[in-house]
Amino acid sequence: MPPSERLPHDNSKSDGFLFDLNPSIDDYEPSEVIPTDFERESEQDDSPWSSPVRSVATDDRDHYLQLALVNGVGPITLAALMQYFGSAREVLSATLSQLGQVPRVGPKLSTLIRDASQENLCEKVKQHCKQTNTDILLPGDESFPRLLAELPNPPVLLFTRGTFTPADQLSIGIVGTRHCTHYGKTMAERLSKGLAQVGITIVSGLARGIDSIAHRGSLEAGGRTIAVLGSSVSDIYPPEHKQLAEDIIPKGVLVSETHPFAKPKAGVFPQRNRIISGLSIGVIVVEAADRSGSLITARHAGEQGRDLFAVPGQANSRMSRGCNQLIRDGAILIQDVEDVIEHLGPLVEKAKIQEGKVIHHPSELNLNEIEQAVLQAIESAPTDIDQVIVKSKMPVPRVLSTLSVLEMRGLIYRISGRSVARK
Questions:
Q1: 301: three-class secondary structure by DSSP
Q2: Pair 258, 268: CB distance under 8 Å
Q3: Residue 242 shares a structural domain with residue 337
Q4: Is the Cβ–Cβ distance between 376 and 231 less than 8 Å?
Q5: Does residue 104 contact residue 76 with C-beta atoms inside 8 Å?
Q6: Read out DSSP for 157-189?
Q7: Which residues pair with 310 in a beta bridge?
Q8: Are residues 180 and 286 in the same domain?
Q9: Looking at the domain assignment, is residue 122 inside a domain?
Q10: What does the alpha-carbon distance between residue 184 and residue 177 come to, in Å, rounded to a whole number?
Q11: CA proximity to 178, closest of 19, 24, 337, 307
């Protein structure tokens, strides 16, 4: 069953965000409520304005940033404005009546856009980011994550501290309740450490409970981790995770759509969940009540075509009802790291998880040392078997038998009797 069919989809949209799950107050802070109609964008998939911005011209970057910082302008509205006027510069210089001609732009938003050119928010944000070593990534930037860029409604911009690497193409999201049990804590640690040890980056939300356990597990195993925040990357929430955030920066990335001067806004925590799933090739829900906020991330994963995994729990445990429901609806039941790797599909692009080790398919992570050595000696282009023997530094009989194993596992194919290639 394809990932996109594993969960029932809802047709209600909010600029790529889904809020129909009504997360439990046990899993979200009091401020994390569903936004008003003005604070979110709603649009059907068949809108003619749904094509997102994929790149920003160099001479239009400041104007684009200025426009993207306007409260109420999300991916769909921004795309509509850019397509109608041709550039952010033209949008900001438009009159109220001209702005009103764009679908989804009403009088209130038109006024905010017009007033943006008189405000100095853009310069304040740029100066703050410079002082705090925060990068501003726009669509089309080399560092903008490819997995996010290819979403139907990607973020209009990202604020980051830390650095994305090619290894982050091989990322798994781990989410769950803030009020985890001992069982949930144990499973989150086991999975995050195990995945990190084989070179998989862990993505989560820096929240209390399962999220923070997943981040710490990855760091303790010497791996990379990405924290997606609802707050800005310079205003860490919850405050007790400030040190954890600092620990993540040299070994991963802090990511947020929220600029440093943004006021607390309803809905930002549910909204950030689609970035957690968007950055991941698969999402694991470790422990969740039947109305947990983690189920929003699960819904996004299904709609984005990501593999969705769930850790089973006791039938009489309230904190396992959400996971058990996901499994009943088609999520993949997992008990260990091997279960996850076994079900992952091919990567969008190859990932270099360490020096000299390039992964084309997650199942390659389950290979033993000899199989890895032989596989790494094979290129995507036809590779002569003699060359494989030389590069792998293995005896001829061992190489030949290993090639047969790799071929049976679907990781390579024979071009001729003397050459092979990686899939």
A1: helix
A2: yes
A3: yes
A4: no
A5: yes
A6: -EEEEE---GGGGSEEEEE--SS--HHHHHHHH
A7: 285, 333
A8: yes
A9: no
A10: 9
A11: 24
E strand or H helix that includes residue 219: helix 210-220
Residue range 8-19, pLDDT digits in tens: 333 333 333 333
Residues 303 and 42: their CA atoms lie apart, in Å, by: 16
Tell me what the mean pLDDT of segment 17-44 comes to: 37
Tell me: the pLDDT tens digits for 296-309? Answer: 999 999 999 999 99
pTM of the model: 0.81
Q: Which two tokens stand for residue 184?
A: 């949930």
Q: Alpha-carbon torsion 52, 57, 63, 69, what sign?
A: positive
For residues 379 and 286, state if they share a domain: no
Tokens of 94: 């438009």
* Beta carbons of 74 and 310 less than 8 angstroms apart: no
Helix (H, G, I), strand (E, B) or coil at 240: helix
Residue 78 corresponds to which tokens in the numbers above? 């921004």
Q: Is the dihedral of CA 34, 40, 42, 47 positive or negative?
A: negative
Domain match, 224 and 167 both:
yes
Give 201's contacts (C-beta < 8 A, 6+ positions apart). 167, 168, 170, 171, 172, 218, 223, 224, 225, 226, 252
Provide φ and ψ at 308, rounded to 5°.
-115, 125
Amino acid type, 353: I
Residue 220: give the domain boundaries.
143-343
Split into its structural domains, the chain has a count of 2
Contacts of 46 (CB under 8 A, 6+ apart): none
Cα–Cα distance for residue pair 304/7, rounded to 1 Å: 11
Give the C-alpha separation, 392 to 378, whole Å.
9
Question: What is the amino acid identity at position 80?
Answer: A
Residue type, 236: I
- CA–CA separation, 28 and 238 (whole Å): 12
Backbone angles phi, psi at 310, to 5 degrees: -140, 140
Alpha-carbon distance of 267 to 33, in angstroms, equals: 5
335-346: pLDDT as tens digits: 999 999 888 876
**CB 364, CB 411: distance < 8 Å:** yes
Three-state DSSP class for residue 321: helix
Residue 177 CA: distances (Å) to CA of 163, 168, 274, 301, 314: 28, 24, 16, 17, 15
What's the pLDDT score for residue 337?
A: 93
- Our separate counts of H helices and E strands in the chain read 17, 14
